Amino acid sequence: GREVIDRFQLILEIFAMRASSPEAKLQVEYARLSYELPRIREQVREALAVEQPGLMGGGEYEVNVYFDMIKRKLASLRRKLAAIAKDREQRRKVRWRRGFKLVSIAGYTNSGKSTLLNALTSGRAEVDDMYFTTLMPRTRAIRSSGKILLTDTVGFIDGLPPWLVEAFKATLEEVYTSDLVLLMLDASDTIPELMRKFRVSREILSGHGVRVLTVLNKMDLLAPEELRRRAEIIGEAAGEVVPVSALKGTNLNILVEKIRNSI
Fold first, then answer.
1. Is 255 in contact with 119 (CB distance < 8 Å)?
2. How much is the average pLDDT of 128-133?
């Protein structure tokens, strides 16, 4: 028969395929082991339930050994990821001391974040019509504003479990500590889907005190009336909305001016 996997197993498999840097691979491995740990704990519980009192069965022993191995591995990965987070924090402090402003591109996965990074900077971020093309932050200077640094980050998804958030904490910190966050939305989505992704993204950003500018991307895929309707609906919840086409370059000069005025 066919193997059945849940949603988060699928996400982890996609992450594993897309992870190319050592840091991304560390984060994916931490997420995978964090996902496995509760299941191994349940196996230990089941093994204890069937073993005879006073005896140590081989099955229980093997599961316990594997459980302890995963806990040790997670502790090691936590130390490495903490060192990465500290290094990123130091780099941010150096940039701030040198007068740079930090702007992050955030939003639901596959909304065009990497395309916008490439359009506004000299970056060559990989662009693909697939989820989670970006797992690691990429930072480049905006061409027309050398003192403004733009960072492309991992895409959001709804219902992020705590273990996945923890695994990518160093990456998400790039968003939470920015001077400004560009919240990217895909204008070609249906209005209910657009609003759902907006709410998910704002929920992830909430509680961190970040300044947010909402960007309605892929305006080239809509008729003017459809675009106006979506901008009005999102604007009621978000305040100011800037429609752009990162692919075609439409309204990018307006967006850069809005960025300058916001920081």
1. no
2. 45
Whole-angstrom CA distances from 6 to 13, 35, 90, 99 are: 11, 11, 38, 46
Position of tokens 């702007």?
103
Residues in contact with 234: Cβ distance below 8 Å, sequence separation at least 6, in sequence order = 185, 194, 195, 198, 214, 216, 241
What is the residue extent of each domain of the chain? 7-80, 99-262
Tokens standing for residue 149 = 């640094």
What secondary structure letter does DSSP report for 168? T
Residue 110 to residues 21, 53, 125, 216: CA-CA distances in angstroms? 20, 54, 13, 13
Q: Residue 250 — pLDDT band, cuts 50, 70, 90?
A: very high
| Interatomic CA distance for residues 189 and 209, integer angstroms | 28
Quick one: pLDDT at residue 60? 59
Query: Which two three-digit tokens encode residue 130?
Result: 């697939």
Q: What is the C-alpha radius of gyration for the chain, rounded to an integer number of angstroms?
A: 22
Class of domain 99-262: alpha beta
Residue 89 burial (CB < 10 Å; 0-12/13-18/19+)? middle
Strand intervals (E) in the chain: 101-107, 138-142, 145-152, 180-186, 212-217, 241-243
* Token pair in block for residue 5: 């996997």
Assess whether pLDDT exceeds 80 at residue 11. no
Listed as own residue / partner, the contacts of 164-169 with beta carbons closer than 8 Å and 24 or more positions apart are 164/8, 164/11, 164/31, 164/34, 164/35, 166/30, 166/34, 167/27, 167/28, 167/30, 167/31, 167/34, 167/81, 168/27, 168/31, 169/81, 169/85
